[in-house]
């Protein structure tokens, strides 16, 4: 059941979609979250997430995504050799003192209040990947739908640093989304053949977002990735 959770302890990652994954601290935090959710349920205070939420740019339709997918170059996944997150500069300043992460937190949140330096000091964030709602920005990561390392292996290794910066801070395509930090960390740099959001009802949206972004940036797909995407899109 989707839950509304209070702030957890720990520091959230930067949401690049290619972090190392869950460790002992993350596991402990999840246990704490489940315990808190159980306590709230017992007292009748656990609420479902609001139906209407802010969201990233709407991806193309399933039919358009199927068309785009058929046009993507299919190739064996490239090597991670030479990859570094530093090759994808983020988060860059978007306006005033606001960087890309802060813009997405404001865009994807509800009733977000920002400080004079653009930090989100309060608000509500619903994570469509898992259906959880959070009340502290530190519990939310900004996921790169196409992880940076995945992009590198799919063709971005040949881009200029300037182009990789544009990709890593793309607010126009459905490439950036605010989600539960632990869920983002479990995703790491996996493609849809290896990982999909825990909330199955979001699979269609996720596949559309993935294909939309790869098509725009002319990134390749491997055969297993294409097959997984086709399966999801055919059932949308």
Task: Describe the structure using short key phrases.
alpha+beta; four-stranded mixed beta sheet; two-stranded antiparallel ribbon; 8 helices; 8 strands; 36% helix
Describe this structure in words.
36% of the residues lie in helices and 14% in strands. The protein is built from 8 helices and 8 strands. With 236 residues, it is of the alpha+beta class. The protein has helices spanning 24-42, 62-71, 100-108, 148-153, 161-168, 181-187, 203-216, 223-234, and strands spanning 4-5, 93-95, 98-99, 109-114, 120-127, 132-134, 140-144, 176-180. The longest helix has 19 residues, at 24-42. The strands form 3 sheets. The protein has a 4-stranded mixed beta sheet, covered by helices on one side. A two-stranded antiparallel ribbon has the order 2-3.
Quaternary structure classification: single chain
Distance linking N and C termini:
23 Å
The low-confidence runs, each spanning 5 or more residues with pLDDT under 50, are 4-13, 19-52
- The overall pLDDT average reads 85
Largest sheet: 4 strands, mixed
Q: How many helices does DSSP assign?
A: 8
Q: Tell me roughly what share of residues is in helical segments.
A: 25-40%
The outline comes out as: globular
Instruction: Find the structural class using helix and strand composition.
Output: alpha+beta
Question: In sequence order, what are the helices and strands, one letter per element?
Answer: EHHEEHEEEEHHEHHH
How much beta, percentage-wise? 5-15%
What Rg do the Cα atoms give?
A: 18 Å
- Number of extended strands: 8
Strand order of the largest sheet: 1-6-5-4
């Amino acid at each position: 059941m989707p839950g509304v959770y209070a702030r957890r302890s720990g520091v959230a990652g930067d949401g690049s979609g290619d972090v190392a994954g869950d460790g002992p601290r993350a596991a402990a935090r999840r246990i704490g979250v489940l315990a808190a959710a159980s306590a709230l349920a017992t007292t009748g205070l656990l609420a479902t997430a609001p139906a209407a939420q802010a969201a990233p740019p709407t991806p193309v339709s399933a039919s358009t995504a199927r068309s785009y997918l058929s046009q993507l170059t299919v190739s064996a996944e490239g090597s991670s050799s030479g990859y570094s997150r530093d090759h994808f500069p983020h988060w860059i300043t978007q306006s005033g003192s606001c960087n890309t992460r802060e813009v997405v937190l404001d865009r994807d949140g509800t009733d977000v209040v920002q400080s004079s330096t653009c930090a989100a000091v309060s608000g509500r964030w619903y994570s469509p990947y898992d259906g959880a709602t959070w009340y502290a920005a530190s519990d939310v990561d900004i996921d790169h739908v196409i992880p940076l390392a995945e992009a590198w292996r799919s063709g971005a290794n040949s881009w200029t640093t300037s182009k990789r910066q544009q990709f890593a801070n793309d607010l126009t395509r459905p490439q950036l989304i605010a989600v539960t930090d632990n869920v983002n960390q479990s995703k790491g740099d996996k493609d849809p053949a290896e990982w999909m959001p825990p909330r199955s009802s979001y699979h269609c949206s996720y596949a559309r977002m993935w294909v939309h972004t790869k098509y725009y940036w002319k990134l390749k797909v491997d055969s297993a990735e294409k097959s997984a995407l086709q399966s999801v899109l055919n059932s949308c």
